[in-house]
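User: Here's a structure from my thesis project, written as structure tokens. My advisor, Dr. K., wants to see whether a designed sequence matches the one we expressed. Can you design one independently, without my sequence as a hint?
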């Protein structure tokens, strides 16, 4: 059977673009469909613009610290939200253009329209119908908003990037990394921030010590963190928004942002009709090689609900291309994937949490260090740093490293290599530290933690 394309990719985010580019390089005739802008969540409405806002928000602390280091400011700094958003938009436009060029330069045909599946080899894209030998679903995910009264007055992270005016009073609902990061952004830019989380502690899934430590740090910076708290309804008033909590408390704000989870983008695509099995949450069910229950259809990235990180989607896309078009079958290795939370201070994490390690190995050796960073020694700042190592005592292999502190994201990248290589605590100990730095703590801890 003749096909219009060897590969048709649905979704031009990081995973889809990488898969299409690499597949084309292997000689495949490739097309990709995107109904919004090329670049996906990360580039357009996720990691990239968020990190720019994090940079902006942290300057408030930097200005305060500068005085202790001999700098004087002629007047109190002021911030223009309009300027920040305008400059952020320019950068996103630039990146969107780069992604278009990547597709053009790699002979990938771009359809800027919504794509749905008619059968295992046929795609309806806009008003056209095309066929492909292989189909790759890379449609990512989207924020989920709870069905409470007045939810139409709330925003998600998508809308937070495009607010026309900066809200002076903000409620952030959620305890995951998106909620924590945006609470820090709004707080750093001068808003009064209340963060609500319905459970006992923020950052579910991270190491418990990290969760407790970060919660204490962000509260010291002025974020009003309230656990076991959840809105019951939202009402618009002349002065902003009135938020009634499930326990009856009433809060007032100018904006309420929900970051309470994301849902895979599979609705209305026709996947189940053609035999592609979905999980209960709508995610595409795949094999380790990213193959769905339909032989010629694959899926990568957030839509599969494995690890929702951009670099993971990129690696999955590369593994797919090598498997299908280069005759080099391989599956993405999802073990020891480093991750970061761009909270203030940052979190860097790789490997097992203490709870996961104890479940897997039984007894484990724990090394902890809680200290005041050198940068804070001349300032009035109260920020502290925390480093934790988890070691399997039988093999001496380091199975988890967790950091809270400045540049934790940069540090954890290199640590991830060590864990990927199954480095031992003895090898960590034999490595000379870079002094003075936060990172040296990783290789200088010698005393095992003993619970009181």
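Assistant: Designed independently from the structure alone:
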């Amino acid at each position: 059977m003749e096909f219009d394309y060897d590969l048709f990719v649905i979704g031009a985010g990081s995973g889809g673009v990488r898969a299409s580019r690499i597949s084309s390089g292997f000689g495949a005739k490739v097309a990709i469909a995107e109904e919004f802008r090329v670049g996906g969540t990360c580039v357009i409405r996720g990691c990239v613009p968020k990190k720019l806002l994090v940079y902006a928000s942290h300057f408030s602390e930097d200005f305060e610290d500068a005085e202790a280091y001999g700098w004087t400011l002629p007047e109190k700094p002021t911030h223009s939200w309009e300027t920040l958003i305008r400059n952020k938009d320019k950068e996103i436009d630039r990146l969107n253009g780069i992604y278009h060029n990547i597709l053009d330069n790699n002979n990938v045909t771009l359809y800027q329209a919504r794509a749905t599946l008619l059968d295992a080899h046929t795609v309806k894209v806009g008003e056209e119908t095309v066929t492909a030998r292989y189909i790759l679903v890379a449609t990512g995910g989207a924020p989920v908003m709870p069905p409470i009264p007045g939810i139409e007055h709330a925003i998600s992270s998508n809308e937070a990037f495009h607010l026309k005016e900066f809200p002076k009073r903000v409620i952030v609902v959620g305890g995951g990394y998106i909620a924590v990061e945006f609470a820090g952004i709004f707080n750093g830019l001068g808003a009064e921030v209340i963060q609500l989380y319905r459970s006992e502690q923020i950052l579910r899934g991270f190491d418990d010590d990290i969760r407790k430590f970060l919660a204490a740090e962000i509260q010291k910076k002025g974020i009003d963190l309230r656990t076991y708290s959840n809105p019951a309804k939202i009402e618009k008033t002349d002065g902003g928004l009135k938020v009634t909590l499930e326990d009856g408390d009433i809060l007032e704000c100018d904006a309420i942002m929900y970051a309470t989870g994301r849902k895979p983008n599979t609705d209305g695509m026709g996947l189940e009709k053609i035999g592609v099995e979905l999980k209960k949450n709508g995610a595409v069910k795949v094999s380790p090689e990213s193959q769905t229950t339909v032989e010629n259809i694959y899926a990568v990235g957030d839509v599969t609900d494995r690890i929702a990180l951009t670099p993971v989607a990129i690696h999955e896309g590369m593994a797919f291309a090598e498997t299908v078009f280069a005759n080099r079958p391989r599956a993405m290795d999802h073990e020891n994937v480093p991750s970061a939370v761009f909270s203030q201070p940052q979190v860097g994490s790789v490997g097992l949490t203490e709870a996961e390690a104890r479940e897997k190995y039984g007894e484990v050796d724990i090394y902890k260090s809680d200290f005041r960073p050198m940068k804070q020694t001349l300032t009035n700042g109260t920020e502290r740093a925390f480093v934790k190592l988890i070691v399997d005592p039988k093999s001496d292999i380091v199975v988890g490293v967790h950091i809270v502190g400045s540049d934790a994201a940069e540090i954890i990248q290199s640590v991830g290599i060590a864990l990927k290589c199954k480095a031992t605590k003895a090898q960590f100990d034999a490595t000379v530290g870079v002094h003075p730095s936060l990172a040296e703590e990783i290789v200088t801890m010698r005393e095992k933690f003993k619970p009181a």
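When you compare it with your expressed construct, this may help: The chain has three domains: 5-142+263-325, 151-260, 339-444.
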